[in-house]
Design brief:
About 35% of the residues are buried. This protein has nine helices and no strands. About 0% of the residues have low confidence. It has two domains: about 130 residues, CHAD domain (Alpha solenoid); about 150 residues, Four Helix Bundle (Hemerythrin (Met), subunit A) (Up-down Bundle). The longest helix has about 55 residues. The two termini are about 25 Å apart. By secondary structure, it is an all-alpha fold.
Length: about 290
C-alpha cells in the first residue's frame, strides 16, 4: 500500500536520526524534527483511536526537539555573523555563552524525554494505523482524495495567513505564514507521492519562501536573545553593550530587507494556494461524476 510505504519511510527517517538527537547532535536534532513533522502529516491520512495516540506521541517528540533546535540555529547564525565581521568576537561571546548555557540545560531535559520514547512501539502503531484510511466524504474515498482535500485546507489557511500578515513587517504574523507554508509543503509532498507526480515547481517555491521567512524568524530570535543578555543582571559592560546595540540594529535592517523579498513573493504564493484548491475541487467533482 502506498500509504503504508510513505509512513514506513517517515518512521525510518525518524528512527535514523533520533539516537544522535538524544545525545544533542545539532544536525540529528534538525533531521529528527523534520521527520516528525512529515510523519504527522502522513498519519493525518489515517483514522481511529490508535492513530490519534501515535500522532500525539510524535507531536510530543516534535515539541521536545523544538527549543534545542532554535538554540542551535541561533548559535550557527551568531557564528556566521562573526565570520562576516557583523559583530565583534567579544560582543558575540556574551550572547554565545548565554545561549550555550541554556542549551546545556535543555539538552539534559531532551535526552531524558527522547530516551523515554519507545520508538519500536511508535513504529508498530504507525504502520498499523496506515491500514485505516480516513473517509473522504461523498466523493472518492481514496487516500489521494483525502490528501488533496487536506492540502486544499492547508492552502486556504496559508492564504488567510498571508492576507492577515499584510504588507507591514509584523514578525508574529509572518511566523504564522511560515508555519502555514510548512504545513502546505508537507501536505503537497504527500499528494505528490501518492499521485506519483514528478512536478516540483510549487514545492520549490514554497521551500524558498519558507527558508526566507525562516531566516527572518531566526534573526528575530537572535535579536531577542541579544536584548536578554543586555538586560540581564550580569550583563556586559557599556562598551560591549554599545556594540550589541549596533549589532541589533544591523539585524533589524536585515529583517526588513528580507521582508521586501517576501512581499515580492506573496502574489506567487497566493497563486499556488489557488491552484491547490482548484485542483482538489476538480478531482472531487470528477469523482462525483464517475460515481453517478
Amino acid at each position: 500500500m502506498a500509504a503504508e510505504l510513505i509512513i514506513r519511510q517517515r518512521v525510518s527517517a525518524l528512527a535514523k536520526a533520533l539516537p544522535a538527537a538524544a545525545q544533542g547532535h545539532p544536525i540529528a536534532i534538525h533531521q529528527a524534527r523534520v521527520a516528525t513533522r512529515r510523519l504527522r502529516e502522513a498519519l493525518a491520512l489515517t483514522r481511529g483511536r490508535a492513530s490519534r495516540k501515535v500522532q500525539d506521541n510524535v507531536r510530543r517528540i516534535t515539541r521536545a526537539l523544538g527549543p534545542v533546535r532554535e538554540l542551535d540555529v541561533t548559535l550557527q547564525l551568531l557564528a556566521a555573523m562573526v565570520a562576516e565581521d557583523r559583530v565583534s568576537p567579544a560582543a558575540a561571546t556574551c550572547v554565545r555563552e548565554a545561549v550555550r548555557e541554556e542549551r546545556r540545560h535543555l539538552t539534559g531535559t531532551l535526552e531524558r524525554r527522547l530516551n523515554g520514547c519507545n520508538l519500536d512501539k511508535v513504529r508498530r502503531k504507525a504502520i498499523a494505523a496506515s491500514h485505516h484510511a480516513v473517509a473522504a466524504g461523498d466523493g472518492d474515498p481514496t487516500r489521494l482524495t483525502v490528501a488533496r482535500d487536506r492540502a486544499a485546507r492547508r492552502a486556504n489557511a496559508l492564504s488567510e495567513a498571508i492576507e492577515h500578515a499584510g504588507a507591514i513587517y509584523l514578525p508574529l504574523r509572518l511566523h504564522e505564514v511560515r508555519i502555514a507554508l510548512k504545513k502546505l509543503r508537507y501536505g503537497l509532498e504527500i499528494v505528490r507521492e501518492l499521485s506519483r507526480s514528478r512536478a516540483r515547481v510549487a514545492l520549490t517555491r514554497l521551500k524558498e519562501a519558507q527558508d526566507l521567512l525562516g531566516r527572518m524568524h531566526d534573526l528575530e530570535m537572535l535579536i531577542a536573545r541579544t536584548r536578554a543578555v543586555q538586560a540581564s543582571p550580569r550583563g556586559p559592560d557599556l562598551n560591549i553593550s554599545a556594540e550589541l546595540d549596533r549589532f541589533v540594529r544591523h539585524l533589524e535592517t536585515e529583517c526588513r530587507r528580507l521582508h521586501g523579498h517576501y512581499i515580492v513573493q506573496r502574489r506567487e504564493l497566493l497563486r499556488i494556494c489557488d491552484r491547490v484548491v482548484l485542483a482538489a475541487e476538480k478531482k472531487s467533482s470528477d469523482g462525483r461524476r464517475r460515481a453517478a
